[in-house]
# Entry
Amino acid sequence: MSSTLRLLGISGSLRRGSFSTAVLETLAAEIATTATTEFADIGALPHYDQDLDGAASPDAVVTLRRQIDAADGLIVVSSEFNHGMPGVLKNAIDWASRPAFASPLKNKPVLIVTSSPAFTGGVRTQQQLRETFASTLARPVLTPEVVIGQVHTKIADGRLVDRASIDFAVTACRALFAEIELLRR
Ligand SMILES: Cc1cc2nc3c(=O)[nH]c(=O)nc-3n(C[C@H](O)[C@H](O)[C@H](O)COP(=O)(O)O)c2cc1C
# Structure
């Protein structure tokens, strides 16, 4: 790796004490020698409205698009709501996805991590995110698919503390770095 990578972290939760945010922040710290991670504020985004989307998009939208554009890659961590991705996350991806097929997401490497207190670890969100990012022409890391079940038992003091989960997710971060290098060539 020739230089420090710039990543954008997106948590699919607005909740104080979010397990998704804890996982994201833990990963950012674990990979800090290779990458610096900025964090998106998707709670500042309005509901998607095509009437607002254009030359004068809302400030929070402009900021998100700039952050994605400036990043070498994304790390998205999310739980699952009613067998799907949380609406706030879908809203953020929809804003980021315009203009269609020429948005900052085009060719952007994305690591997808899901977690949930359920045994299934948000696996349905994992699949939905892959489908949605395919539509934006982003480049989700194909493997490994990081799914962390029973996440509430693996968090302490706002950090992921389960060593096996951390190691697995860091392996996936290395796959993200490899994808970034590949697409730079
Ligand atoms: C409206 C709602 C629906 C939920 N549906 C699911 C679900 O379908 N599958 C699941 O694994 N967890 C489900 N959960 C539990 C969430 O995964 C859990 O609250 C998780 O901790 C939320 O993510 P966060 O900690 O990052 O805020 C649901 C929670 C809420 C509030």
In short: Residues 30 and 110 are 17 Å apart (CA to CA). The first helix runs from residue 19 to 30. The beta strands are 5-11, 35-39, 73-78, 109-115, 139-140, 146-148, 155-156, 159-160. The two ends are 13 Å apart (CA to CA).
